[in-house]
Specification:
- This protein has 2 domains: 66 residues, no CATH class; 70 residues, no CATH class.
- The protein has 2 helices and 2 strands, in the order ββαα.
- The longest helix is centred in the last third of the chain and has 21 residues.
- A hairpin with a 5-residue loop joins strand 1 and strand 2.
- It is elongated, with a radius of gyration of 21 Å.
- The chain starts with 20 loop residues before the first strand and ends with a helix.
- The protein is α+β, with helices and mostly antiparallel strands.
């Protein structure tokens, strides 16, 4: 019989923190003279604890296997499969969000942001269907507002 292999990994949601954000560096311009984005991100203590707990669970499962185990869990979470979202958050509170609940910018009435940046948080799952649903909802709102003369 051929040897068999089993590979396991864990996925978890990173907790949302205001310090994790994207800004621009006006002192560092790209070839078109546009300020370059700067990603500010750090795993929190809770994120690292969740990663450690997931690793412990996997090691416990491995301990019940009959084969040889080659654990390679790393020293810290890596985020290699992340879906980056939440840079232009929507919400009820204008002090904590840029968009209203219809993905409409608070400061620019006819600007709607319906990609993943409007998310306030996200799991490790692919966000495509949620983006599509939010886009359809925003389109219905735009159509309604145009009909009423609001846009």
């Amino acid at each position: 019989m051929q040897p068999g292999y089993l590979q396991m990994g864990s996925f978890a949601k990173v907790t949302a923190h205001q310090q994790n954000c994207v800004t621009v560096d006006p002192g560092r311009l790209d070839a078109n003279g546009i300020p370059t984005p700067v990603v500010h991100f750090r795993f929190s203590d809770n994120d690292r604890a969740l990663w450690q707990a997931a690793n412990q669970s996997m090691l416990e499962m491995f301990s019940h296997l009959k084969g040889k185990v080659f654990p390679s869990l790393g020293k810290a979470p890596s985020g290699f499969a992340s879906h980056e979202v939440g840079t232009v958050r929507m919400g009820k509170d204008p002090r904590a969000s840029v968009l209203n609940s219809y993905c409409q910018a608070r400061d620019v009435k006819n600007l709607f942001v319906t990609d993943g940046s409007c998310f306030t948080t996200s799991s490790e799952k692919n966000p495509t269907l949620t983006i599509m649903a939010l886009s359809m909802r925003a389109a219905d709102y735009i159509k309604d507002q145009r009909r009423k003369g609001g846009l």
